[in-house]
Amino acid sequence: MRGFEQLTKRFKVAGVVLLLLIIGLGTKASAQSLNPIPWPMPAAIPAPTPVMPVRENNEPTGFQITGFIQYASLDATPGLCNKDDNPSPTPANPPLPAQCKITGGWIEMNNNLIRVPQSTVVIFPNTLLTWEEAFELNPNTHQTDPIMQTGLAMSDTVRFPGTYQASVQGNIVNGQYIAGLIYLSQDPANFTQGYIEKFDYANGVMYVNGMRVQINDPKLTFTVPNPDGTPATPLTVLTKGRYTAGQSADPRFAVDQNNSTVGSQTGYPMCIPSVSPYIDGSDGHNGPAVTLLNPESLQDPQCPEKNRPRDPTTGTLLIPIFTMNQAGDGPTPENPIPQDPYLEMPFEVGDFVNIIGTLEMDANGPFITATDIEALTVGAYTWPGTDPAYIHIDVVIQGTGGVPNPFFPQEAGVRTRVEGFTTDILPPG
């Protein structure tokens, strides 16, 4: 028994010594991880020439680098456009200095410092911008700032929440990394979904699982045409967003206001009314009954409730899958309140939605500023074989063919594949 106790004590002592040894080795062998705010800037611009083999005929090497944006800068010449002096430039009153829109700069990711040449295209989730516009459209940047910042780089002193990522494709020329295309987002996989609980109509907000989701929809000024596209009489001019009252936490990450990124799974464009459609001005949580609605003249003219039909018997239940009448059709017993297929369709409490966006922060706390929203529980179709019809495309593969050439090996495809939806159920042909 005594021998067993002695053996146990020895194991305990050995275990303690081993643990201390491991801790000591761990302390010496591993570097401490820090989180400096802001992140350090590059040691030298341009970076030292990397060590690399010489290629035949000095051919450049292509590269693709993806990572967090550590540093981003804008060249002093031509420099930032005069955004404060000229916030709405026109051909007659262009931005200055001349050619400022094409200004280049530098970007650093994974300690790789990459040259951004003039006229480089930066692809945000739904917008194509120049490198200069990535700085100009930062709401916190002004033309009098001593240093221009995107607010997206880890080394920026005034940053947006979280970290932002870029994927850069380009070539290594004479040892220097030079960008060709830049893809930029907060997180390309940032995605959430859930049921809509209520709305803040004036601010273009839906609440999903308790999270505030604001559609990133900058204000536009536009005239409302007739359904056939001709000018309406009298002329109606509106200033609002495409899908909402109009607001944007960061216009670089806005929705696509030309090709709808806010809609149903069938491709029908959807919206949040700019004013509450309800008589009591409520947020929609009291239910969709027709008797609770304001007359159409008091609703958002671009986002009317008539485009979300209720059952004709009780008028209290939303119809999830339906086919709209032809434009201009009158009421029928089955469809007592005709739809207008040229206008958008409002989201409603209880819709299940997919949301792609950016996590932001304001005085009220964190929220998502959405670039794409898709309602999965709404199937809206337009009258077969008539205008308008809407299309939602997920994947397109367009074959380019090819001509055999023994001196120029090539890989070619002739297939064409399209995956998506349309609101017109009439088969083609």
In short:
Helix content is 8%, strand content 29%.
Description:
Helix content is 8%, strand content 29%. With 429 residues, the protein is mainly β. The strands form six sheets. A seven-stranded mixed β-sheet has the order 3-2-1-6-7-4-5. β2 (105-109) and β3 (112-116) form a beta hairpin. Residues 1-30 have low confidence and may be disordered.
The amount of beta strand, in percent, is: 25-35%
Largest sheet composition: 7 strands, mixed
Radius of gyration: 29 Å
- Quaternary status: single chain
Distance between the termini: 93 Å
Please state the overall shape, judged from the principal axes of the Cα atoms.
Answer: globular
Number of strands: 21
Number of helices: 2
